[in-house]
Amino acid sequence: MAVAVTRELRVVNPATLELVGTVAATDPAEVGSLVAAAAAAQAAWAETPVADRARVLLAVSREVLRRADEIADVVVAETGKPRVEAVTSELYPALDALTWLAAEAPRLLEPERVAYPQLHLKHKRATLLYEPIGVVAVISPWNFPFGIPFTQLAYAIAAGNAVVLKPSELTPLSGALAAELFVDAGAPVRVAQGDGAVGEALVRAPGVGKVLFTGSAEVGRLVAASAGERLVPVTLELGGKDPMLVLDDADLARAVDGALWSSFTNSGQVCSGVERIYVQGDLYEPFVEELARKARALDLGPLISEEQRDRVAALVDDAVAGGARVLAGARVPERPGWFYEPTVLVDVPPAARIERDETFGPVVTVARVVDEEAAVRAANENAYGLGASVWTKDGERAQRVARRLRAGTVWHNDHAYSYASSQATWGGRGESGFGRTHSKHGLYDLTAPKFVDSDSGRVPVPWWYPYDERAADAFRGALAPLYASGLLARIRAAWRERRALLALARRYRR
Ligand code: NAD
Questions:
Q1: How does the average pLDDT of the chain come out, rounded?
Q2: Peptide bond into 466 cis (omega under 30)
Q3: pLDDT the model gives residue 102
């Protein structure tokens, strides 16, 4: 006889190792009924006018503002991150998404009239509808445990979908809170708590119309393969190894401060965190010296878990064993919690694993490059392609370099911040995944566009049967009058093909 086991997720504060709370895990066998419940709720939500959905988002926004301190408390307790980052990196993206969607979604999702410029189709009318997909499965990581699932929920809900959210098993409380805020306002959201087995069950659950996965490339592959078996579309927001290109005319002080924040915020556990810095020419020495000096003085939050710290330390040790020089950190400080010192490495050998693998910790490598060309080449060498930044006082130069970088986002004299500005697309190339979240593209990614064509039924259709012996010549002859480039060329073609056009006109008179 099967014994029912209630599994529990134990949430530990990684800074103090104290127990924060426990959350009941969902039995993978129960995930299907959560999806069915979400699907049932979605039917009514899809019928809710977009303007009313926007009002629900604004109601959620008022609650987020009212409960901002409580949200920050939960995030800090689960991740140990500095409180200022819980506010800037979790609450700002959340509120920005709600505000932007409430203002823009009604316009973006409105049925769109599509014109027919083709002469032979001018009598037709069409409308493009942006219909909801149905149930969207949102699977989230732990690094921004409130901000990431929250913004993705907001977009999916705005588009008229229901959501089943599977937060990271390391940060289930923040995920549950994000979901609760939508549920309280009347939006169709359900939560499945648990580890990868629950995520897997969700991806496989009949009734899931789309999977929005944020996490590692390794798990992203599994998710895409599993969704692919049933032809369920996926958006993959995966890892990164963002390069920062410091060109020889960069403002040194700004570049150093920018590098410091972009590499070490959230203890480097940022998908678009700077992990590689390429400095051009003579700027290299003063840059690494200043960066290392300032890194040594930083006091960071912990990593999420012992396992994550071990991964980061192993990558650093491997680089050092291969000959890399440590300018700062590369040590586990003597204090409780999963801390690791902010680390700056130089002279990293090309064979070191850290040259390729995502570190996802407070570690940055710096290398000298001779010119812009070498910087671009080095930046594009990695398999990831999430973000990149160019640091120069020359705006045109920045634009030129930006176009040559293989990345989903390129920033000039800044890095990563645009996650908190909803009009900016978010997403990557290569191993960083595909599809986009945020912006109109992220919204449309969560819709099923439907082209609805309309014909009065009064105009005969010339391409229907019967095909007589002159039909092929008639249609052949009409190609150039319809599609030759330039009005004059079309008129000339019409005169040349007058016999064919006459034959075609007869087909309209049948
Ligand atoms: P992860 O891939 O280990 O887990 C992500 C989520 O997937 C978790 O909820 C986990 O429980 C679930 N999961 C695990 N196995 C699964 C399976 N077989 N099927 C379905 N779901 C499964 O990632 P993580 O350690 O939580 O997060 C860190 C990673 O996320 C890093 O690589 C980071 O770069 C990436 N990330 C990317 C973005 C982005 O926007 N591109 C944002 C944040 C984090």
A1: 97
A2: yes
A3: 98
- Which residues have CB under 8 Å from 289's CB, separation 6+? none
Once rounded to an integer, what is the mean pLDDT over residues 22-44? 98
Rounded distance between C-alpha atoms, residue 25 and residue 201, angstroms = 13
Alpha carbons 240 and 360: distance in angstroms, whole number: 9
Q: Which of the four pLDDT bands, split at 50, 70 and 90, describes residue 1?
A: very low
Token pair in block for residue 19: 């127990």
Q: Angle at Cα 345 formed by Cα 342 and Cα 347, nearest 5°?
A: 175
Distance, in Å, from the CA atom of 249 to the CA atom of 406, rounded to the nearest integer, reads 22
- The distance from CA 135 to its chain's CA centroid, rounded to whole angstroms, is 18
Q: Could you tell me the two tokens for 164? A: 């089943």
Distance CA 425, CA 317 (A): 36
237 counts as catalytic: yes
How would you label 199-236 residue by residue, b for 16+ Cβ within 10 Å and e otherwise? bbbbbbbebbbbbbbbbbbebbebbbebbeeeebebbb
Residue 283's CB: how many other CB atoms inside 10 A?
Answer: 18
50, 110 contact by CB (below 8 A): yes
The radius of gyration of the chain from alpha carbons, rounded to an integer in Å, stands at 27
> Tell me: the pLDDT tens digits for 383-398?
999 999 999 999 999 9
Structure token pair of residue 479: 């190609």
- Which parts of 268-367 fold into alpha helices (H)? 284-296, 306-321
Joined together, the tokens standing for residue 318 give 């491997």
**What ranges in 189-297 are assigned the alpha helix state H?**
196-204, 217-229, 252-264, 284-296
Active-site annotation holder among 85, 237, 355, 358:
237
Task: Spot the catalytic one: 169, 200, 271, 355.
Answer: 271
Please tell me the distance between residue 353's alpha carbon and the centre of ligand 1 in angstroms: 20
Q: What is the mean pLDDT of residues 419-428?
A: 98
Burial letters 419-455, b for 16+ CB under 10 A, else e: bbebebbbbbbbbbbbbbbbbbebbbbbbbeeeeeee
Cα separations (Å) of 352 from 177, 344, 405? Answer: 41, 15, 23
Position in ligand 1 atom list of the atom nearest CA 226: 19
Query: Largest Cα–Cα distance of the chain, in whole Å?
Result: 91
Using a cut of 0.70, tell me whether the model's pTM lies above it: yes
Tens digit of pLDDT for each residue in 226-270? Answer: 999 999 999 999 999 999 999 999 999 999 999 999 999 999 999
Q: How far is the CA of 471 from the centre of ligand 1 (A)?
A: 58
Q: Could you report the per-residue pLDDT of 130-171, keeping only the tens digit for each?
A: 999 999 999 999 999 999 999 999 999 999 999 999 999 999
Q: 285-290, long-range: CB within 8 Å, 24+ apart, which pairs?
A: 286/252, 287/246, 287/252, 287/255, 287/256, 287/259, 287/366, 288/327, 288/344, 288/346, 288/366, 290/252, 290/253, 290/256
Report the distance separating Cα 45 and Cα 159, nearest Å.
Answer: 10
